[in-house]
Write a structure and sequence with these properties.
The longest helix has 26 residues. The protein has 19 helices and 6 strands. Helix 6 runs antiparallel to helix 7. It has a domain of about 140 residues. With about 600 residues, the chain is mainly alpha-helical. Keywords: Cell outer membrane, Membrane, Signal. InterPro entries: SusD-like_N (IPR033985), SusD_RagB_dom (IPR012944), TPR-like_helical_dom_sf (IPR011990). Belongs to the SusD family. Pfam families: SusD-like_3 (PF14322), SusD_RagB (PF07980).
Amino acid sequence: MLASKPHMMMKKIIYMLIGAGSLFASCKDVLDIEDLTSYDPDQVWNDANLANAYMANIYELFGNWSTTAEQRSEQLIGIHFYPDRITISNGEYKSWDYNRIRLINQAIQDVSAGSLDQSVKDNIIGQALFMRAYAYFQMVMYHGGVPYVTVPQDRYEDDLYVPRNSTAECFEFILADLDEAIVKLPEQIEKSAGDYGKIDGMFALAFKAKVRLYMASPQFHPSDPWNNAHWQDAYEINKQAYETLLANGYALAENYEDIALVERGPEVVFAVINAYPNKVAVWDHGVRPGSESRGAANACPTWEYVKMFPMKDGKAFDDPSSAYYKTEDELLQSYWEDRDPRFEKSVVWNGKSYEVSGKTGRRQYTALGVAHELDDFGVNPRAGVNSTNLDRYSGFFIVKNSLLRLTQEEVQQYDVDFVLMRFAEVMLNYAETANETGRLDEALAILKQIRQRAAIEPGADGNYGITATSRAAMREAILAERNIEFCFEGHRFWDLRRLRMLERLDGTTKHGVEAIAVAEDGTELSITEARTKASAYALQEDDFKYSLLQVPLSGVRVNSLPETYYFFPIQESVIDRNPNIEQNNNWGGPFNPTLE
């Protein structure tokens, strides 16, 4: 059965195949073979190098490092969701990727007619089918059902004014594409292979399991979020993905900080390859303090998120049963002490040892009048200077996945491979489905592995601070673990949206922490003395007192996430071009984007 077709595209086009060689090793020499600014289909699909170059360009759909991905959540400074950020008429949060879909469908059609070896054809078709499923999944995640196109269209011969497929039909097509892709793809591409960076069966299986998790999730079942029949299907495929990848050598990296920085490690399920100078990514020059970068940092952790990290026994700071219990006021003055080890490996704070750019003994300071003007945060009147960072900084920076060896001049040469999916995600997806199908013991076993790798104390009961004994409590424990384990990786907002928990972000504010240097008796040091000590890195964390400042101090200061954001609207201009496309019912139209 063919799905309905979208509203645009020409049958014959010129493809822009730019920079294909930077995406994976097998295409390194392709630019020496042919000018890839245009192509003859008969030539491309009869030449394995050109065919691989064509496919390499579509790999851009997997993205790359993004420093600001977590501004949507409470993790980073910035009120991302101001009132009416998303409307029917603007382009915010619209995913309508039919240009790429056409390139994918063209590849499936044309490679089948070419003269390449069947094994090469199958590999290319397998990649293309996965890409089609991946692209449609992004659209369905945003909007619900969309027109699911499976053939390249001719604007002169095809009926372009077609309606949306239902959300259930789209998921059916996505799963069918993934199943066929898994059959055609190599089962597993070794980390040392020349084809590393291409899609393989392990990634396809893990992604299929993620699709099933979404199908079961409350986003698509608002009236039956936790007991719908899709949870059992999701459990079965997520358990299969976990056990299959485990049997094929995937595992948690021994050290949390090595997940991305030690490339091609055991935890990497799929990575986008970066290699200086051909392909670099935005990370270090977006997270480093300005004094060690090429401009101000654009991703700073919030106090709200700092509080969310557990203590080193795995319990919340304000849990009376924790050996490290503190009130919030006590935590504010010693937030770096006795924390989950992932905190130290992820966040930079005032006074912390931070030997960036190869500077031995260096400490990072943020105190106004003491820190470099590109690093400071605060309103201390004794500093005699105003900070320019009060709307963008927080007194915290990110160290996770940072290449500290890069000098300031080299900071834009960041080329660490972007880890799109890692084994920890496969594990936690499995844990979630296990819990929602009544298998709390399986969910607990996964959480214990994650926390053991994090070096959290096991405790007398060996549960690493996890006390959940009910389905609801375990649900919260898994969500909290995802929030910490995947910090700054762009998961948090989408997890809350998938679980219909956006109210946890709605109406919230964000804060940073100001540091002021003090003497042993608690009196404030003069700015001159504090600056002198700081220049010798003689001030440590406990040589300061701390207070909270709301960020930003000006402009929009409260998050606004209405109920309508569980499915984003189809852009008005799309409907204007094709009146058969119906708007979502949460945006005034008749289309139901859920699975109910």
